[in-house]
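Lecture 7, part 2: worked example. A protein chain together with magnesium ion.
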Amino acid sequence: MTPVIEAVDVSRSFGESGTEVVAVNHVSLSIGAGELLMLMGPSGSGKTTLLAMLGCILRPSSGHIRVQGKEVSTLSSKELARLRAETIGFVFQGFNLLSALTAWENVALVGDFLARHPQNMHSRSVEILENMGLGHRIYHLPEALSAGEKQRVAFARALVNRPRIILADEPTANLDSENRDRVVSLLRQSVKERDVSIIIATHDERILQAADRVIRIEDGQMTDDRKHGP
Ligand code: ADP
Ligand code: MG
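Predicted complex, written out as structure tokens:
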């Protein structure tokens, strides 16, 4: 089966040659449908850089990224934007909700960009927020939401276009233990019910038990890749 996303020997450096930082160093990995993968590593190990390359928002210095079998470096920026919007849902570090928009509008925004079924966006957004246990928060602004609720709105937004994969950067970093468990079980549920794949970058060992597979990265290099879970 074609992997959802594949990285082949990707590296990424920042800065000028001589003083450059190698953030990701010759990493290869592929993720299949319905897999929950955790990318573990200490701060500065290259997790965010790797996620950004997998999500096609950052170009590798060398190596290749394939999304659903397509080599992304051959796509025009328009084709890439469409592939990304149709395939990938992002959950950024720190939620990134727009403060002037209500919860459902934050969710609907991404769908409007694709404009496939704009008339359905309200009902789709409401339905997905209800699934996330946020039925009572649909018309609230982000400032009225708790951290856990904001994180769930961010996940609803990532799911609304029915992506094949969700890339989440430290999604539990700002949550208390109750909200952390809730977010993790919502993610597990999405994998099961929607057959979506998820990559979570984290250094939180306490959420590891939810993973199907754990990849460890240190100083930009993959040090371990193993199956996990029941
Ligand atoms: P993590 O997400 O695991 O904390 P990052 O991918 O953010 O790690 O960073 C890996 C390394 O690359 C760090 O040394 C970081 O300082 C460096 N780095 C990341 N992004 C940039 C950038 N835009 N410019 C310069 N250095 C960067
Ligand atoms: Mg990071």
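Strands lie at 5-14, 21-31, 36-40, 62-67, 70-71, 88-91, 165-169, 197-202, 213-218, 221-227. The pocket of adenosine-5'-diphosphate (ligand 1) is lined by residues 14-15, 21, 23, 41, 43-49 (CB under 6 Å). Keep this in mind for problem set question 3.
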